[in-house]
Each structure stands twice: as C-alpha cells, then as structure tokens.
Structures
1.
Amino acid sequence: MSAEIADPVTGWGRTAPTAAARLVRPRSYEETVRAVRDCGTRGGIPRGLGRAYGDAAQNAGGSLIDMTALDRVVRVDAKAGTVACEAGISLQRLMEVLLPLGWFLPVTPGTRQVTVGGAIGSDIHGGNHPASGSFSRHVLSLDLLTSDGDIRTVVPGTPLFEATAGGMGLTGVILAATFRLHRVETSLMSVDTERASDLDDLMARLTASECRHRNRYSVGWLDLLASGSSLGRAVLTRGEHAPLAALSARSPARRQPLAFRPGRLPGAPSYVPEGLLGRTTVGLLNELRYRRAPRRRTGELQPISAFFHPLDGVPHWNRLYGRGGFVRYQFVVGDGQEDALIRIVRRIVRRGCPSLLALLKRFGAGDPGWLSFPMAGWTLSLDIPTGRTGLGPFLDELDEDVAAAGGRVCLAKDSRLRPELLAAMYPRLEEFRALRAELDPRGVFVSDLSRRLSI
C-alpha cells in the first residue's frame, strides 16, 4: 500500500483547495481495512478519480483513501445482464468490457471518468432519469467497509443502503458492487436535435418528450446570455440506443456494431489566461452553437462517447477556466415549481453569468437514498468561472430561492452551500446523522464537505 502527502487537493472545479492530506492507495481489501484503521485524528474519506466538482472527496490534514487500484471486473452474467466489480473501476473500463457483450450501464453522467464507488456514493444521474432513476436504483448489493473494520454486504431496502446511496462516502468505503445492466444492440445512439426558441418552448418540448417515452435520454442546452424574447433559447437533444436495423448494410459499423473507440483530442494546456471564458467569449460561442444546431434533425447516428461524454475527449478541460477554477451549480425544483425555475433563470440571465455549459433536464420520481439529489421535477446545472465579482453572495441568494421552492442543490457538485440550508433541502438529513453517529461513533469517515455542512 503506497502513501504520500497530497498538497494541494481540489475537486474537478479546482476551487476550495486543501492541504496536507495523506493519500493512501490500498491494493486489496486487507490493505483498505488497514488504511481505515490508520486514518488518524482527522479521519479519512474514500476518493476515486477526483470528478466530484467540490470538496466531497477532500480531507484537509487527514487521509484520502484512493480506491482506484481496486478495479477488477469480478463477474459478468451476460444472460441475466448483471456485473459484479470492485468499486475502484471506472465507468470507461466497464464500457470497454460490457459493450462488446451487448450491455451498457443503466445510468451514466456527463463523464465516464467516474468509479463505481463514486457513482453509488454520489448516486449519479443522467439524461434518462425519468425512465431509469439514478445509479443506485440498479444496484443489487454492495460490500461496505465500516469504521469498525467489518465488511458488510448491504442490499436495497435497508437503512444502511439508503444512507450509503448518495451518502458521499460518509458511511464507509464501498469495496465492490453488483448491479443490473441495460441491453443494447450497437454502440451507437439514434439522436434527434432541435432548437427551442425560449425557455417556455424548451420546457414544453421536454415535457412532451417525457410523455411520449420515445427517447430514453433528453437534455436541453441553454444559452443563459440570451435575453428578451430569446431568454432561455436552447438546443434540445434526445437519444435512444440505435438498434442493429438502423445500420445500413454498407455501413462500416455493421461489421463491428458494438465496437467502443472513444476519440481523444489534445488536452487543455496547463496554463490558461484568467477570464478566457468570460462573457464576450462565451456569448460568441453560445451564438455559434445555437445557430449551427439544426432546426430539426432526426435519427442521426452518433457514437456513445460523443453523445454522452463529449468533454471526455478533451483531457483536463477543467483547466480552461484558469487557475481560479469554476463553480458547477446544480439545483432541482419539484413539479409545480415551474414559476420558481423561470424566476431563477431570469436572475441568472440578468446577472450575466457566462456559462458555456448550462443544461436543463427532467427528473422522475426520487430515489430512496436519504441524501440522493434527484426529485421529480426540473434540474438545471451551469458552470460559472470563480472570478465573477460578487459570485458568492449571488449564489447564496439562489440557494435561498431554491430552498424556498422546496428544492435542493447537488452535494456532489457543491463547494460553498451554507449549512443552515441543508436540512431544508434534504428532509432526511437527521436520519442520516443519527445512523452515521451510531455506525461511526469515533468519526472515522469525514471530509471537507461534511465538516463545512456539519453532516
């Protein structure tokens, strides 16, 4: 088991750096048990590939338990459509194994550079939430190392499972999991793209898409610098896994319909001038993206990697925001709170936040995790460079608007929420705290996020 001092440590947003963490990398269950027992007075937190945007996988002065060496596929049941694997394996590696067998992940976020342990710990969601829910809904069992050194098999329907799914690593270290898969015939997506003239138009189209159940995945990209009659103009993308029959007999993909070869572009440079993605640049890029989108196009075939994870093709794309990084702000408000969503979008537009990546999606019924983010309604995520004057107070005001509407912010993306709003956003927070106090009375598992929010 290797160990080193990691200084500094940040999330993918490169904000809120912390220092003097001891990074340990166990290579077996036994070494992981030893790493937990040796965490020290500042405790420890499991860490995967570092794609949490905020401080959920940071622990200043304490231990970070890097799980990426536990990355084996234990068993694939191609008949039943299940996989058992260690928690440190990435979603990309799973795709490389599963797609040639005709299986795909039940849920994937906007990056495949996430471990299975991270997917469960943050209960990731994707563009198919109304149809499929979040990741933990498909988990059949998981092995959890708790603070007393015991390894427990945890199954859905139990309090420990519901606390662990979305529990941000605070109930223990996920060592392995077994979960269901989704059958596919090709590694391509059949994609429909269309423009929406404004926010009302986009919301109507997303609602109609959900009611028709024709496309499993739907997401709207918003231009949050457009105002007036164009406020909330958007490009709506909907997709479904392409059947083999969609490939023509002359198509090269017909020979290897399940091949998975994600493309890769040159990485972002290590130094990017501050303010590169400011209002002027983002305004021009947003205008270009909207104008280049077709008014309506159906049935375009795209590789899975291009449809789900376009940014993964640019290594270290987070550097484009400069040394100060960016805030990924994501919130959800429930059905019936559409007026609140529109008011919040108007405030963001008036503020002139230069968000190159602003996505609106529908959520279906919430999942059982006590701290899981999704709830039935509307979720908006946006990236904002940290150099914006007055950004902190502005986001505090948005937090209050979200809480007043009965919504919540996403903990896996957060680095700055005030603790007094957490209970209003997550009504099962006290149950989580009580179970955690019973399960981990010495406070072995702790993170910068849990300290900041008093979880």
Note: The longest strand covers residues 188-196.
2.
Amino acid sequence: MKRIATLLAVLPLMPIAAAAWAADMPGSSDLLEKGRQVAVAADCAACHTAPEGRPFAGGYPLQTPLGTIYSTNITPSVKNGIGAYDEAAFARAVREGVKPDGTHLYPAMPYPAYSGITDADLHALYVYFKSAVAPEDVSPPKTDLGFPFNIRASMILWNMLYLPYQRFAPTAEETPQIARGRYLVDTLEHCGTCHTPRGLMMGPQSGKDLGGAQLGAWVAPNITPDLLSGIGTWSDEALASYLKTGVAAHLAQAAGPMGEVVEHSTQYLPDADIQAMIAYLRHVPSVKGQAVHPRSEYGAQGGDEASLRGLTSNVDLGWKTFSGVCATCHQVSGQGRNQYPALFHNTVTGADSPDNLVATILFGVRRTVDGQTHYMPGFGDAAAWTDQLSDAQITAVANYVFKQYGNPSMHVSASDVAKERNGGSLASSMQKFLSILGGVFALVVIVGLFALLLRRKRA
C-alpha cells in the first residue's frame, strides 16, 4: 500500500519530469528536426532506399563501371544496420568510408564529400538516425565486384589520394550566403560526385569541378557558369524552379539520378538554401566543354508528322516511331503538352552528347514532386514487351528528334543504344582498362601492406 501511495503522489509530477528530460536529452525535438534536415540535404534516402523498399534499409543498386554496388542499411537495426554504432563509429563511416569492423566502403557512398560535414550537423544526423528512423531488419544484397575491385583494402591508397579529411569552414572572402551554398553544393548535396569528371583512378579531375561527367547511361551536365556548356544563360528563377520541381520551363527536366535528387532532397530545401546554392554556383570557375551553342537554344516547332501521317511505306523509321510512340504526348510539332515538355529549346535534345536522350527513351522519367508524379514510360528492357523498342527503332527516332528539334550535329548509332542499355559508354569503354589498372593498384596495396607487416615484426 505504501508503494501505491508513493506512486500516486509521484504521478502528477511525471509529465513535468518527462518534459524536462525530453528537452535535455540528445534526441530532443529541435535536434531531431535538425538531423532530419541534414539527412534531407545530404540526400540519404535516394541511395539508401531500394525501389519498393523500406526507408533507409539499403539495397539500392548503384551501377558503376566496376560493377553493381548495393547501398547499405542505415536504419538503427542492430543486426543489419547501424544500431550498434556509437557516434565515433558513425562519424568514421560517414566521413572516411570505414565501418566499425574495418571494412572500407566504396566511394559510390560520397564520403569524400561528407568529410566536410560539420561536427554539429554530424551529431544531429547521428541522433536522428538512432532515434527517429525505424529499425529495419533487412539485409541488402552483398556487393560482389570482380577481382581486383573486391579487395576493399585498395581503398586505403585511394583515400590517401582523394579523401580531403577536412571539415567545412567559411572563408573570409565569401559572404554567408555563398558559404552556405558551398557547404550545400560541395558537402551535403555532394553535387561533384556526379557532376565532376573522373580520372583514370576514378578520382575527381583537378580543375574540372562540376564540369559535367558520365554517370552510367546518363550524363550529369556541366553546372558551372560557362555560357555555352554550363548554366550561364539560366536565370535564377529557372535554376530555382529546376531544383524545387525538376522543371525549368523551356530548358530542362530532371530525369534519371537527378530526378531522384529532386524527389528526395532539393524539393524540400528551404528557399534560402536554394538561393544559396544558386549564388555559389554563379561563383565557381567556369569549365568550358565541347558545346558551340547553348543547349537550350536549338530547334523550333515544326516537323513533318502531320503531312506523313497514315503512310505505311517509303517512310523514315524515325518518323514512323515518333508518330506512333512519341507524338501523342509531345505533340505532332514537338511543342509538348502539360507535363510533357517541348522537344525544342530543350537541354536534352540540344546537348552535345546523345546519351541523355537515348537514356530517357530507354528508361523513361519518374519523379514525385509535391505529391504529383511526373511520368514518361521507358521503352527499354523493363517495359512490357508490347512497348519495347528495338535498338534500330531507338536509333532512328533519336536521330529524327535531333534533326527535327534539337542539335542537328548529333548522330546516334545502334551501338550507342546498345551501350546505353548495358550501362553507358563509360562502362563499356573503361572496363578493360580499369581492370588492368585495378590489378596494378591492388598489387601495390598488397605489397605495401606486406612491407608494413614485416616492418612491424622487425620493430
């Protein structure tokens, strides 16, 4: 009875005590909200959530020239996720790409960019994932790259060459807005991971930051202020619209990996952060590409679809495919309708590479922004067999679209389409070379580690 009386006396005080504890505990609401915002800005969901999978449970397949890398489970599951990580282990994994057991992550996880995350943001991120994310006991597929890339110890040397080991700090020369933009672009959003070209050892090429790069079947375009190859002719309003919605009217539409960035990350950023990113991108050094004309200024409404409609013989396969597959949505003169963009004054059809047009035809577009899904079906291997287009059909319709509405100097071959189906030109052209380079790379690492062991024994 005495215990019951004591409990009844204490009960009225429990809500007060709980409120005080919640305000002081590491997972307080303000800290959790900050961690959530950092996770959104760092675009964690895009790579760590598999199609139709549980949030942050991993298993997303990342196609690279070295093979398929599957993302890890970063929920607080003790068995399969980060539930057993303390904050120091979490920080090392995020910033250095090393798990608590010493296993090295591949830099498909953008830890070289995340190395700049501030201590305060990293603490908030850790608390968020440990306290607010549901644990999922899901074991993602194991990454199993071929020899020598399966020797993860080779990342030790790669990290020595390319990992900054440096936290973000504003400089005296930049305004607070530009500093915030630099932190978002270079660190949290890790834009350079896709938009900076890679060298022979897959490290970022010096002097070409954000200058555009091959990304599997897609091309991440030049986003420096260059007037011809970059975004120098884009208005602030167009850039803001693109980052918030995936659409810049009469310019571009986000598809492929960039569509995922908009869907999972940039649409949720505060307007002040969007403006900060734009301000910083205006100040990065321009990188000149191969373009001789701004991508968005090619083409005009027109074409011969209406005059040829109904003909079944002696007609171009490109026109025939366009008329039967594309014209219903993009209209007979390529002017577009509703969410389907015009094919002229479009950075995809005006590009100096055919890859993104071919990839769009093969894989389609799907992104959900503000609750509305923007969708174009793909006509590649994943489509229903009644909707699949052959390499010859895609080759013909891509050439037709370039000639009628876009950059007329572009020419697509059947081998180009075949490469895109199989992961893109980078995968096919660099695979053999990277295998040779990787063998030498792994051998150097193994010899170095062996020499280090001998040295320790002698000591």
Note: Residues 1-25, 427-437 have pLDDT under 50 and may be disordered.
3.
Amino acid sequence: MTGVDRRRRGLCIGTDTASRVRHTRGKSTPDLLRLRAGDVTDVPQAVVLPAGHDEVLAVLRACAAHGLAVVPFGGGTSVVGGLAPQRSAFVSLDLRRMNRLLDLDPLSRTAVLQPGLRAPEAEALLAAEGFTLGHFPQSFEWATIGGFAAARSSGQASAGYGRFDEMVLALTLATPEGTLTTGRAPRSAAGPDLRQLILGSEGAFGVITSVTVRIRPLPEVRVHEGWRFASFLEGAAALRRLAQDGPRPTVLRLSDETETLVGLAQPDAIGADAAQSGAGCLAIAGYEGTAEDTAHRRERAATVLAGCGGTPAGTAPGERWAHGRYSAPYLRDALLDAGAFAETLETAAFWSRIPGLYTAVRTALTDTLTRAGTPPLVMCHISHVYENGASLYFTVVSAQGEDPVAHWTPAKHAANEAVLAAGGTISHHHGVGTDHRDWYVREAGPLGVSALRAVKRRLDPEGLLNPGVLLPTD
C-alpha cells in the first residue's frame, strides 16, 4: 500500500489519497463515470487491511465505539451501489490479506477459504490438489470468495456446478456484537438455516471471515459448442427442456436476435456482419467431466436441441465465447472512451413469465431512453437456467447524452418497475446494493423487511455496517 502505512496489532492502515480513491464505489457505469469526472465526494476516510478474524472483530468494535461506519471490500466489483454507504464518514475494510486456503478435506470434498481470496487464486490453490470450485462469473478475474457469498453470486457454469450460495456449507461472520458461526453438516433440520441470513447480506449484518465450500474434482475435458435457433422464444423452449428433463450441460445460455447479430455472445466477433455471425439466436452449451460422461451428455443433449429446432454450429462459437467470456467489462471502458453509454441489468422469473418479462424490460428501456433523445440498442441473453425458471441479462448501449448518469437513472428505474410488474426478482446475481434497495423493499414486503431490520439491530446495533445498502437507514 502506498502512502501512510501504520501498523496497529498487525493491522495495515492506509490514509493516502490513491488508496482511498481506489476504494471508492464499485464498477457500475455510473460509478465509473463519476470517477472519470473527478467526483470522489464519498471517498472513505481510511482503508484498513486486517489479517484475520480477530483483527476484523477488533476493527468493528473500535469503529462502533467511535461511531464510524464500515464497508467490507473484496474485489470492488459491485455494479449495484454495494460500496456506496449512506454515511459521510466511513472506513473501507479491505480483506485482501485474508487470502488463504485454510483447509481442504478431500474425503468430504470441502474447502475452507478466506474471504479476500480472489477467484483465480482460489482455483489455482484448489487445482494444485486436484479440485475446482467451478464458479466462473464474469467478474472472475477480480472478485473474491467473500464477495461471492455476500452477493449470492452465480457463475457462468451454474447449470452444472450451481450458484455460489448452493456451494456454501458453512460461514463465519464477524459482527460488532461478536462471532456468528453457521453450518456443521451438509444438511440439517436443526431450525432455520442461519447461513441464509448471511448469504446475500452484502456486508450489512457483518463481515464474512471464512467460507466452507463444496468442491469437485478437476474435469478431464471441457468442451463448448454453439447451436442456432430461429427465435429467442424457440431457443428458450429448448433450454427449458434441458433444464427440466436433462441432460443438463455445465454451461447453458442463449443470446437473443440482437445480441447474436452484434456478436456480443462472442466478444472477439463483435462487429461481424449478419452473414458471418449467423441469423437467429446463438446458444452456447458447455460440458465438463470425464471424457466418457461428457461425450454421452453431449450426444443426448444434441438430440433434445435438434428436436427443439436447433441447428448445430460446431465448437468454434462455443470456444470463442469461452475464450472471451471475461472481456465485456473491458469493452465497456472502450465504449465510454468513445462517448457511448453501456450498462447491464439482470433479473429472473419462472419459465411461464420469461416472455412477458423479456418484452416488458426491453420496452421500458427503449421507450425511456428514446424519449430522452438517445435511442438505445438493447440486447439480452438467458444467462442461468433452472428447472423452474431462468435469468435474463440485458445489455444497453446508447449515446451518453449531456449528463450520462442523469440520463441513465430514469431508464434504470423504469426497468426496475417493469421487472416487478412482470413478476421478476429485482436481482438474480448482482445483489441489491443501493441501486435496487427501494425495489427490494417492495419485493420483500413490510413484514419481511421488519424481520431483517431486527436481525441487523441485534448484530449491528449502531447501524454502522454498510449503512443504506440492502436496507434503508432508519
């Protein structure tokens, strides 16, 4: 850490401008635009880097004694205002020093990981022992284990490995009131599952200091292939068949007509003409496992996909997607440099509601931005599938306008309203933060919010943990 680096009982404390600015907000487009404009009005007063659970507890107690808010910081990849507390004085609790693999049980296939461990480092440590976590979100290169748990992350291979919250077997949480530990068996009927209070809590209830996760043996082979469908609804029906009746691929996603035409499903093919990118909609199916099992599942899935109207496109589209699947955030920076506005949002719903949800959100975004004088290009793909429903992930590109943040806010609000009206959830895997908070309160309902407030008051009586994130401040 540059600048001031004081040590108190092993703590690293940074108060230099560069360190504080790097811990300001997250990675949403409005966050980036504000930083590009030099707006650092909500910069933390200091950055504190604890080395373990006891140091986290000490920091929380000290901050509670002085009325100083605390914002846990992992990879800084929040795109929903998860690092924008509603408090002028706060410290950023950077967990990067807590980056170890604490334990690995090959018999039970579990691993205990510290929260500041970045995803690539976690995969490397597990791979050295012959295992994988199998969690590969678009934020993979920067996001951390603690952040995955705090935001209920979902990786691109969720069809095969499950969401991150499904991988978590146990958690340790540091709070101003002490330590909360959860999970001592793979399943239990001993009361409500307290893990569910921590998963998705976004630092509002405490700081996650260790995560016990399910791990899987490293696959022998990984294969990705492309399939084309005449329409988005036809492709969605095919994905539903696989999700409900099997065989389920490890990766399963479908781009709509616009996203397929632009080539966003294959970042290295962006800008290709329609003849090159192909008409209709592109689906990506990926398979991991033993060579024999992978070949068998591919063959069975191909029968289903073809029977639903799909045309095989070979492995080239799938491998191009796999090669460029972490590229989109970097492409956004280039678009911002060129004067374009690019942002994403996502939701999920039951299968019967997917067509209406898709139309409602597209219409809300298109109408709002067109009225503002900047007609958008709205693209969408099904990013995650389940037996009972799926997630829709939208990408919006338009001119920035005179005030890009003010230009986007009404469109984002209109999309949020459309999501709730069409029966979707306000967030499938990006979390709540401050951007979704008011809609989350409506989704959860008054009694649900009151119950969560009671939990927060018990664990964080002074309301100092990430204030205004997830729940409104009192």
Note: The first strand starts at residue 6 and ends at 8.
